[in-house]
Amino acid sequence: MTDDIDVDADRLLPAELLEFLPCATPQRWIEAALENPALLLIDHAQCEKKAASTAMSLMFRYVDRPELLTKMSQLAREELLHFEQVVGLMQERGVDYSHIQASRYAEGLREHVAREEPDRLIDILIVGAFIEARSCERFARLIPHLDESLAKFYRSLVRSEGRHFEDYLGLAERYGGEAAVVERVARFATHERALIEGEDAMFRFHSGVPTAISP
C-alpha cells in the first residue's frame, strides 16, 4: 500500500524536482506528521513566513540583479499569501499559533554556503531550491493521507512550491553557469540527504526522522 501511495505522490511532482532531491522523505516522518497535525500546521506557517523573509532579504542585498528582484518580489508575495492561508486553516481547526523552535534543516544547509561573492549568492539560491523542492515533495507525500480540505490546499502548494524551486535553481544557473551549479548542487545534496535521513530530536516540517515529538 505504501508503494502505491509513493507512486501517486511522485505523479504530482515534476521529474526535474524528483531528480534534484537526493532521497525521498522517510516513512517515519510521514507517520509523525499525521500523528501531530497541529504541530505540522504551526511549523508550516513559520516556514512560509521565513520563506517570504528570505526572499525579501535577497531583494535588499542584491539590488543590482533585476531578474532576482522580480522573482523574489513575486515569491515573497506568494509565500505571505500561503502564510495567511495556513493561519486561516489553523483558526478553522482550533489550532493556536505559538512560537516553536525551528528545525536544524535550513541552518544545516546554510552552514555550507560560501562566504565570498559571487559563490555566496549561488549557494544561497541553491539552498533556496532545496528548501522549496523538499517542501513540495513533503506536501505530495502527505496529500494521500489528508482530509479533503487540507489535501486540496497542499495540492495547490505542490504547484507553487515547484515553481519556486525552478525560480531559485534558474537564478543560480543564470548567475553561476549550469556546469558549476551542477557540481555545487551535488555537494549540497550530500548534506541535504544527511539532514533528511538522519535522526532529529524533534518533529518539524523539515526535520529528519524524529526520535521524539517536541513542541
From TrEMBL:
GO terms for biological process: tRNA modification. Transmembrane segments: none annotated. One of its GO terms (molecular function) is tRNA 2-(methylsulfanyl)-N(6)-isopentenyladenosine(37) hydroxylase activity. Pfam families: MiaE (PF06175). InterPro entries: Ferritin-like, Ferritin-like_SF, tRNA-Hydrxlase_MiaE. This is tRNA-(Ms[2]io[6]A)-hydroxylase. The lineage of its organism: Bacteria, Pseudomonadati, Pseudomonadota, Gammaproteobacteria, Oceanospirillales.
